[in-house]
Amino acid sequence: MKSRLIFWVLLVAAVSGAAAQQQDKNVFQKTAPVLQPTGKAVVSVNGSVLTDRDLLREMYAIFPYAKQHNGTFPQAMEPDIRRGALKMIEFEELVYQEALRRKMTLPPARLRQAEAQFSHQFHTPDQYETYLMSECKGQRKILRARIRRSLLIEALLQGDVTDRSAVSVAAARTYYQQHQEKFRIPESFSIQTISIIPPKGDAEQMKQGRKKADDALKQARATQNYEQFGLLAEQISEDDYRVVMGDHRLVVGSMLPPPVLNAVKKMKPGEISDVFQVDNVYTIVRLNKHLPEGLQKFADIKDSLRVYLQKQRVEKLRAQLNIRLRKTAKIEEL
User: Fold this and answer.
1) Dmax over Cα atoms in the chain, in whole Å?
2) Is the C-alpha dihedral spanning 77, 83, 86, 91 positive or negative?
3) Of the given ranges (58-72, 92-106, 238-252, 311-325), which has the lowest mean pLDDT?
4) Three-state secondary structure call for residue 13
5) 289, 290, 301: which is closest to 180 by C-alpha?
6) Cβ-based neighbour number of residue 257 at 10 Å
7) Do residues 149 and 8 make contact, with C-beta atoms less than 8 angstroms apart?
8) How far is residue 96's CA from residue 13's CA, in Å, rounded to a whole number?
9) Dihedral through CA 12, CA 16, CA 21, CA 26, nearest 10?
10) CB of 52 within 8 A of CB of 86?
């Protein structure tokens, strides 16, 4: 398990602007009030009190984009984010207490290394000192205690969850053989497109659009590979796929217009079609790959299948651990 300490930094440093741009801005049209943690108790776990500061840290861990919006969460999502964060801090406190019950220990060198790694996450010494003052009352011993807590949580989850969730190639093969219906794929085509889209209902503009598409076809057929066709699509295509080099990735054959499907079935990878007209759109297709209907080969999917199965095991083991720890715990949400 990756250390949760990284998320504490989100309280004093903004997350990447590039990542925030990927978030749908419409989500933030209505926002919940800005949360101002005061140290108020929100839950007691076997007598150990967690505060609104702990809760807010976890809320930012779940939804870090809020930092790009002045610390606000989407109004419609805030209750679910809060509930999820509350359950997570309860779970982590239960795991920590279990680690103490088992008398788990950590090498001093590991603690020193973790503290050094944590301090290096800050861009300047002043940022680090600001964090210490705001979150640890200016005391490094409080920070060390939090680092120790985080490492103990990681260590217990590593042993009880991660290590036990490994999936061997043999186990993945057995799952594959027993669930082959999940690995059957329809006939599919990996394609790129260049599309010209004249306005609807105007014969003259449709004529001009056809001429533009014919000119685009000449340029397309002069390209030699995926990259050249893709760069041309970025320059002249008018469909939404132009921003990804015209690449549609894999498309199930039944989703293609019949004229296009009939054509790509006869094409070889790397070939470029004539101009197709579908409604008011003129489209040129480059075929990159043709996958016939059939069963995916185990060799092609074994790595991704092992990852998938391991994630399932992790979720199951975490859930079982959570149920087991809560069974005898006294949890009071305040």
Assistant:
1) 82
2) negative
3) 58-72
4) coil
5) 301
6) 14
7) no
8) 27
9) -20
10) no
Nearest by Cα to 193 from 213, 164, 171, 170: 213
Cβ atoms within 10 Å, residue 302: 15
Nearest to 53 by CA among 43, 40, 44: 40
3-state helix, strand, coil in the chain (%, to 5): 60, 15, 25
Say how many C-beta atoms besides its own lie within 10 A of residue 328's C-beta. 8
In one-letter notation, the amino acid at residue 202 is D
- Whole-angstrom Cα distance, residue 111 to residue 18? 33
Rg (CA), the chain: 28
- Give yes or no for a contact between 162 and 1, defined as CB atoms under 8 angstroms apart: yes
Residue from 189, 181, 201, 117 nearest 151 by CA = 117
Residue 320's alpha-carbon distances to 11, 72, 246, 316, in angstroms, are 31, 33, 45, 6
- Report how far residue 93's alpha carbon sits from residue 245's, in angstroms, rounded to the nearest whole number: 48
- Residue at token pair 């975490």: 318
Q: What is the pLDDT of residues 2-34, one digit of tens each?
A: 444 433 333 333 333 333 444 445 555 577 676
The residues, ordered by sequence, that sit 6+ positions from 100 with a Cβ below 8 Å of its Cβ are 152
Q: Lowest mean pLDDT: which of 12-16, 69-73, 180-184, 247-251?
A: 12-16
Spatial separation of the C-alpha atoms in residues 53 and 59, rounded to whole Å: 10
CA distance 207 to 210: 5
Residue type, 149: R
Report yes or no: 287 and 267 within 8 Å, Cβ to Cβ.
Answer: yes
Least confident segment among 10-24, 148-162, 192-206? 10-24
- pLDDT of the residue at 15: 31
Q: Measuring CA to CA, which residue among 241, 280, 233 is closest to residue 257?
A: 280
Q: In 3D, which of 92, 87, 93, 99 has the Cα closest to residue 159? A: 99
- Location of structure tokens 């990878």: 269
